């Protein structure tokens, strides 16, 4: 077994273990919650004891905690999240469209910002001390340190309320009743609702990529291999391209990590824009104590992070053999 | 190492050195206009956090602003009666803004300090000992990386009544991972330096080596991440409050924003939105700008000889 394979195996085992621990923590936290959604049903007085027992049995709440735990693990492994208590629908049926609504907003935004701000960052780093560099650093610092909902509120006030260019909330206009994904996402109405949250997401994430790219190029600027390129007579832009290519790895790794954190990172964005995504659904489910929905949503978010971490570590080790593969991972 | 009998002169020298450091830092920050502006904002913010509630002309929640006719002023634009206007419930926005700085300061300060201290200790211990200690601690940081912060915090805050210290603790419990990793990687390189090795060779205990030889050399980066921790904590606290999971007994900037958002008055009452929003944005950005100025000093690779 090569060193890389051994690293891969170890990293894989750790990921599985982490998933197990994360899932157990969610289980324990949910069981610690006082009251249950059933109590609301019970205290409303419309159910007799028999019906209550029946419901409890349906959700497996009459069994011992260990049996519940094992069932819970089994159900997660097979993506059977059970029934949403308040929506009386299978959890997955509730979550799947919302997951897609989130992805359609966040993935294009993340890809766009990764490309645009990396290029801008490299250019800024190359022109160290220029006005552009200073401006881009201050503006992206402002954007990434300000909580995303505040940026969103400012933009809503300006573009939706005062200039009235775009709608302030929702994913489609209220009267739209599209059928299927193509109809939902392939319309001008959708685009009209899409543009503002998309822009906010792009701006919010731009800072980290820009600074990473800038620092990478600044570090490379003084290095020997660029002196060689300069001596060979390459133009400024060609040299920058070389320096940029050599600082791609941290950006790539960071992109993967961000992708994993995408759902949780923008819960606030979805809430501000009433975007029917998984983050907003989680907040609603918590408020309504819809446990099966909550545990499924949190599980999906945790799984995304764990998988992305795994991918980032592996990418790093694969592309940069000088990095010790004996653990540690990425910062 | 000689036996410690510190004469007074030695103590004075230390105090003097500390004072010089503080003055140097101040002079350094003044050179960078952005960092200096940030420092002024932070100073103003600390002042508001300490004295804001006493400066507030009215009680932020109890008092209702009334106009000349004695009627309650609801959603009134800024005027002589209320300099920052009133909320939909007839409360004084200025008073809420002044009082709302305190929870932001408390969570920011203690959340940041907690994050920094915890992360620093874990990083130093993990990097210094290596082996299974390192492995164990790093898997623990992996775990906090895997548990998504926002959802977990929301979950925890539903079954424990949110109060400001609980929120601070949750934030610190999730955010220490960042400094821990960075400090650890710094320690890994410091550990190999000659003075650490010679300290070990001359029989210094692990604890002593860590405290006197390793820790001081990674302290700057620890401070930097403590500062970032402050900004993260403030942002997290505001976000939680905005989602409705803040301390229900305290007026905070995040809570003000929640109220204006949830009441649907964001469209009209800009005077209710702007003070808390600008407050949060200004303080988090300022901390980051100061941090960036220091990062250039700490990370020698970004430093270039222009």
UniProtKB/TrEMBL annotation, chain B:
Pfam annotation, one family: BPD_transp_1
InterPro entries in the record: BP-dependent_transpt_permease (IPR050366), MetI-like (IPR000515), MetI-like_sf (IPR035906), OppC_N (IPR025966)
Predominant subcellular localization, coarse grouping: membrane
Locations listed in the record: Cell membrane
Membrane association type: Multi-pass membrane protein
Transmembrane parts of this sequence: 34-56, 105-129, 149-176, 218-245, 269-290
Any single GO CC term annotated in Swiss-Prot or TrEMBL for this entry: plasma membrane
Highest taxon above the source species: Archaea
Record domain ABC transmembrane type-1: where: 101-291
Stored Gene3D superfamilies: MetI-like
SUPFAM superfamilies (alphabetical): MetI-like (SSF161098)
Annotated GO biological process: transmembrane transport
Annotated family: Belongs to the binding-protein-dependent transport system permease family.
Protein name in the entry: ABC transporter permease
Species assigned in the record: Haloterrigena salifodinae
Lineage, broadest ranks: Archaea, Methanobacteriati, Methanobacteriota, Stenosarchaea group, Halobacteria
